[in-house]
Amino acid sequence: MANLPIVLNRNSALGRPLSFGEVDSNFDTINTSINNIQQVDYKTINNNYMLTINEAGKILLIDSDTKTITITIPDDSTEHFEVGQHIDIVQYGTNTVTIAPENTCIINSFNSKTSIAGQYVGVTIINVATDEWLLIGNLI
C-alpha cells in the first residue's frame, strides 16, 4: 500500500501535506510531551503554619471558616529556600489569611499589605534573596 499524503495543517511550515511517516513522528513527539506534563501538587492547611522547603513550587489551600490563619515565612537560618523558589497560597475558607515573617526575613508587598483579599483569592510568595520575599497578588 502506498504512503498517501494527508493534510494536518494546510499552513504547514513545509508547504506540503505530511506523509504517514512524518505524521507518526509528530504524534510520537506529542505523546512524549503529554506524558512529561507534571501534575501540580497542593496541600490543604487549616491551622497556623510555618512554611518548609517541601512547599516550594506547590499550591497551599488555606481552609478555615472558624479562625484567622497565619502563614509564617521562616528565616533562612530556620529553613533555606533557593532564590527564585515560590509558593502559591489560596484562601479557600472564609476567614482571613495573613502572611507573616518569622523574625528577620523581609516581606515586600504593595503598600506593605500581607493579608489575602478574600475567599478563593490566591497570592504568590517568591524568594528574591536570602531572608527577602516578594508577596504578590490580591492583598488587603
Sheet of most strands: 6 strands, mixed
Helix content: 10-25%
The order of strands across the largest sheet is: 1-3-5-8-9-7
**H and E string:** HEEEEEEEEE
**Domains (count):** 2
End-to-end distance: 68 Å
The rounded Rg comes to 23 Å
Descriptive labels:
single chain, 140 residues, mainly beta, 2 domains, 6-stranded mixed sheet
Structure description:
With 140 residues, this protein is mainly β. The protein folds into two domains: 1-37, no CATH class; 42-137, Sandwich (Jelly Rolls). Helix content is 11%, strand content 31%. It has one helix and nine strands. The protein has a six-stranded mixed sheet with strand order 1-3-5-8-9-7, with no helix packed on it. It has a three-stranded parallel sheet with strand order 2-4-6, with no helix packed on it. The chain is globular and about 60 Å long.
Summarize the structure in short:
With 140 residues, the protein is mainly β.
Which secondary structure elements does this structure contain, and how are they paired or packed?
Layout: H1 20-35, E1 42-45, E2 49-50, E3 59-62, E4 69-73, E5 86-91, E6 97-101, E7 106-108, E8 121-129, E9 132-137
Parallel strand pairs: 1-3, 2-4, 3-5, 4-6, 7-9
Antiparallel strand pairs: 5-8, 8-9
